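Each record in this resource describes a single protein on a pair of labelled lines. With that in mind, the following record should read easily:

===
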Amino acid sequence: MASPINFSGAASGLDTNLIIDALLSVKQQKVSALKSKVSTLNLKRSSLDDLKGVLNSLKDKADKLGQNVLGKRSTQVSDSDIFTATADSNAQVGDYSIVVNNLAQQSTATVGGKVAAASEIIGAGTLTIDTDGGNSYSVTLTDPNSTLADLRQAITDQHGAALNANVIEVTPGQFQLAVTSKTAGANQNIAVSSNYSGFSTSANFAASGVTNTQIGEDADITVDGINIKRTSNKIDDVISGVTLQLKQESAVTQSLSVAVNNDDVVKGLQEFADAYNSALDKINELSGIGGRFSGDSSLRNIKSELQKIATRFVSNVDQINQREGGETGFTALSQIGFKTDQKTGKLSIDTTVLKDALTDHFDEVVNLFGGGSKSSNANISVLTSPITPFSGAINLDTINDTATIGGQTYNLTRNGNILSFGSDTPYDGLTFTADAAVASVDIQISAGISSQFKDRINQYTGFNGVFSNRKESLNTEERRLNGEIDKASDKVESERTRLTRIFARAEQAISNLQALQNSIGAQLKF
């Protein structure tokens, strides 16, 4: 029967390397086990990055629920040939009547008479362009060989931000300099007092002065019976949050309607729900049986906290969402069409219920997600929210600049009519507009779902969050294991070296014995 050992040693015929590997296999198993642990750590680190990614995606969707989703506005005009309109999140929902009485236009003037070519020499001189608004633009050419093209270039170089200059071929073989104000409006109209002196080399050019050929005019519109004039056909400071682009004059009254874009809002809220569900899926995958963080308490905690935010009543929003007659409005997502699966915890949306909520009580939906506030004094209100979400009651004293929360009084910092908490308080970032001196003002604040999601996720994925600490712990463990791998590998190699020397000496001894045997055998033959 053939032996499983390869007898290939120089003296003994044994495969000594195979024998050494077999003797070292137990020690090598320890190295392999340590390397397997490092691989597991790398998989855990990668899984943390994946979880961080889906949580940050949820945070991003929650963050965009404000202006990007609930701030969506749609506009509709009766005749888009007359004007168009766009609206941002600050636009108030409503209907407006608009008449475009006059379009804004720039002013144009010709300078000098017609010449045979742009290269015709007009000589040295000074041109001054005045506007009805009091602006004055002068250029001076000192070279007696200056051309009409040189004058045009000088205007562009020195006053290109305000004036546009061109040499135009008005009729075949006849060229004239035209100057146009870059800004429309009556105050940019080129005045008849504009003039030039010198430029006497060309009789044709010197034959005429500065002539206004197009008068600068203001845009003139009537909005809900109020007459308004502006220097541009793009008007964004008349209706809050709405930009009008005037296109054509018309004596006919046009209508503008600004409304909530319910379809876009529903789409954005669905994307938020999808991101929430993806976060739950990833947490379940990693923390469930067989997961890389099976039984991990921190993952269970974040899942629990996210579910609480999504399913519980929004703290103190009942004080904000008050309807006429004292009825309390929406206080939870479940009231506006969000449903929670009892087994998976995932969210789904009844879009019919949601659209009804958006139509009937849009502001309440905004307060659910974005938070809100209510003040007992119309002249005193919340300006900015605190860095850390806060819900509760505050009593302000705008005479002594103090705020009392939960029985504790804080001194506020005043800057004009702005009162703010200090950075050393739990309410850093919370500011108020105080346009009245009042000893006692009650303010109710509710932190919306959006800010709660962002704050809670930041506690896990932020720079000093739980995941960063966990990742550093994994890095520390990996460094420890790599140190053990190095030590164990060194021991394996050291033992390999020792065994190699032993087998080498044994081979040498066998070789010596074989030589002696051969020598004795040769002598016996004689």
